[in-house]
Fold this protein.
Amino acid sequence: MNDLLALPAAPYHLLAERFGTPLYVYDAHRLEASFAAAQQVVGPDTPIYFSLKANPNISIYAVLRAAGARAEVSSLAELTTVLRAGTPAEDILFLGPGKSEKEIRVCLAHGVRLVVESLSELDVIDLAAAGMGVRAAVLLRVNPSFQVKGSGLTMGGAPRQFGIDEEILLRPLNLRRRWSAVRVVGVHAYMGTRMLAAPSIIANTHQILALATRIAAVQGFEPELIDVGGGWGVPYFEGESPLDLAELEVGMRAVLADFRRDHPHTTVATELGRFLTGPSGVYVTRVRWVKTSLGQRFAVTDGGTNHHMAAVGIGSFVKRNFPVEVLGRDSAVAAVAGDEELEEWTVTGPLCTPNDTLVRKVQLPPLAPGDLLGIRQSGAYGPSASPGHFLSHGFPAEVLVRGDRADLIAEPETTTQILARQILSPLAAPAPVAR
Ligand SMILES: *Cc1c(COP(=O)(O)O)cnc(C)c1O
């Protein structure tokens, strides 16, 4: 796992010169290694869906797709991305609590399976499918009444906008009679995110499989697919340990083998976002100024939380620091050798808000304008989960690196592009009324 979490090797200075900063750099080899590690945990018979929510770039998806990933999407743009990348409909799941009728129709037209999050959604899907003369294949997303421990964000055992309550799904719903243009083919559950404890994930998987089996029995369908969710985490903060993949593998394989013995015709799948792309990405910013305020050292960089909102501190009120390092200087070695003394630095971005703090009071070697800083574990929930238009700097360039080659995979947004969406209305400054 440590190999999966280290700073990916890349010529960051050359990349910064060629593509400018701020910049996201992703390592294709790392993406492949993370995918391979996940597949090793669940075994070859368990498909892994990549949640594009974590990183919606088509090239990132294409790397994972080539490695064997399927796609879990939640918007028309995400669906278009994976279709454009050549994914067949049977390898796509469309999920989300507020699907539009258009999204539903496009899924039905392509034969993409929908994960249904409410009974009223079944009404809409049924009507649309009947009108189009097709049979809609859907999975029922259950909101389990149990909760998973050790997750950053829990999704079960509480009132939620996601899925259908377990209690409802454990009463016969007369699926075929009520929704005759719908074929229920499976069950989906997603229990939480940022899980770093293998025993929780294993217990979770066991419980979901048991619940899905009960639901299928009550509703009278043979599940083709049970998606047990995922939520595997990567450590960001001090005190967090990486997921023990060896422990997870032993437990998951046992649970899956147990289930398959009784249900040889059901495919069990998992879905992962953060785990697959987080460790591959580095957010690269350049130090513009250094200054001291009341004894505290600040490095002001050219990029901040407008591109990396997660760095503010995921779901916590207290600022917690993502791993950061000076790029192109072997600071760790230098520090150990005593060549370079570490100092306490707070790194902030260009936004006019005190919240634009990338890291607070971390130990770094002396910084100077022009230095490059890399925030590691930044390949998931980066630009797409950040307020890129706050203060109108626009979204940064994104680059994919494979060995000694590098390609732009997202252009930096220009002022022209940002302003292109705005319309100067005549109502803003009406012409003076002639007297
Ligand atoms: C967000 C989400 C994921 C991905 O979560 P990660 O923690 O990034 O792996 C998967 N499934 C569902 C339903 C989600 O909402």
About this structure: Residues 28-278 form a domain with the TIM Barrel fold (CATH 3.20.20.10). The longest strand covers residues 281-293. The pocket of pyridoxal-5'-phosphate is lined by residues 51, 53-54, 95, 190, 193, 230-231, 271-275, 380 (CB under 6 Å).
